[in-house]
Structure prediction request, 454 residues.
Amino acid sequence: MKNILLIVIDTLRPDHLGCYGYDRPTSPHLDTLAASGTRLDALWSVSNFTAPAFTSLFTGLHPHHHGVFNFTAQALSSPLQGALDSSGMRTAGVVTFRFFRNLLKNIWGPIEAVTDTRGFDFSKNLPFDVTTSSLDWLEKHGRDRPFCLFVHYDGPHTPFRLPDEDADVFAAPFAGAADPAVRDLLFPRAEKLDNDRNKTSMYRFMKDVNWSRRRLDEATLRWIVAMYDAAVRYNDRAVGELLAGLDQLGLTDRTIVAVLSDHGEEFLEHGGFAHGGVHLYEEIIRTVGIIRDPGQPARGRAVSVPTSQVDMLAALLKLAGAEGLPGTDLDRLLADPDHRPGPVFCHGKSKIAVRDGDTKLIVPRPNPSLDRVTRLKMWINMALMRKLRPEIFDLAADPRETRNLYGDRALRRRMRDILREHLAAPPPGPLGGENLSAAERARIEQEMRDLGYM
Ligand SMILES: [Zn+2]
Prediction:
């Protein structure tokens, strides 16, 4: 058995990394990793925000089966648990925030959180704290038996958390022209870090932009993107330190390293800002996927066909040598570049997307695991925002998703049939979300608001 180091960087768009073709030098360490492994160029998250995306990653289930659409829910079990147990692997996690403890309680090993945060008052060198804690864990547990360690970095999630000198690398030339109010909201100064009004204002600001009640001017947007890139580079350095530490511990030869993101981020490409809203365009759901397997000669290989994170954990466990796992398109692709994979799916709260080859369908569909009133509100909101129209795009000819082909009846029927079949397929075992007590739910919701996740 090999080990697995599963690194997930929050909110990281692949097209903002050098190894995926970005022109700013945001990712020297991830670029080096990609050059010695496999890069997945069309890897979809299973959802467009954190809670369902991670639950799907760890269970191999789509959200209509695990039903986890917020941080107050949790999956009861994982179909991958049996294979994990019989593999003898030690599972653990080192994460930025403690909400993962609740989210992954029934489906993963012990989770060590590096912050116990209330408000925005946590340190700005959080990624390096994650690295240090992960290396401590590896030093303590990395040699006695095979492990799968999950490491979560906060990445370029807003509010941006990085020291001034690191932010300046890309953002300094743009700061002067950016709206000072927006700068204060998204990159709060130390004296405003624990300010409730600032938090509320940040969410209101994002909502107002998404509802077109507030215009985000070009100069400010350029500063936001530069800040995002600076945060990517800052996190890349922390990941580089972790990989160097893995090497120093002598674990590189026995450890599969996977670097993923949980979802992307919108910069007004389709009128939206941030993530977790209605949209399921590529800037939101296409994720980073870099896998370095010391047992595989594939160096600098790129997989351009669609793959899904729903298959990721099973594929990694299989690469590590675990048995009793379901065969997936992803592990077949890793073994055979000519394999032709099936469609992939992404479940947002209000919409669902399907990709088959280069064709992508997006349709409004408030998730049935949500209560009726919430779903009704979603239909109303989508109507008010004029977001009800189904869409079909040809991602090969139109990667920016600007020409809606839904008028093509044959195409529409083919994609609708694929979606219908996906939704009708039964879950692979007894499942369901668990409801928490009202007090516990309130506590977690407050924490999520504090962190900028709600
Ligand atoms: Zn996230």
